[in-house]
Write a structure and sequence with these properties.
15% strand; binds zinc ion; 43% helix; alpha+beta; 5-stranded antiparallel β-sheet
């Protein structure tokens, strides 16, 4: 019971995290649709990048992945730099985060 509840909480937290990260990255869009930093960097046309369930997918260029992949795409950086950025952005001052 408690395990189920815990994993559900983590899942919700994770899917909210990717939306928060999209906002922190400065991605523009409407609802769950965002302009893809890979193929729509100028933010014109219809936003083709969709965020759902903690992952993202661009229906235009086919880019997809998790929250780390979104940071890599938006900042055009490597994996280490993306994780470092996420660690800074999601830092929990109370130290009660889920950890790794
Ligand atoms: Zn794209």
């Amino acid at each position: 019971m408690t395990e189920d509840r815990r994993s559900w909480d983590l899942q919700v937290e994770r899917s909210h995290a990717v939306e928060k990260v999209a906002a922190d990255l400065g991605l523009l869009g409407a609802g769950r649709h965002f302009f893809c930093p890979g193929c729509q960097p100028d933010g014109t046309g219809t936003p083709e990048l969709v965020i759902k369930g903690g992952d993202f997918q661009c229906f235009r260029c086919g880019a997809q992945g998790d929250v780390v992949g979104l940071v890599k795409l938006a900042k055009n950086c490597d994996l280490d730099a993306a994780i470092a950025w996420l660690a800074r952005e999601t830092e929990d001052p109370q130290g009660t985060g889920p950890g790794m």
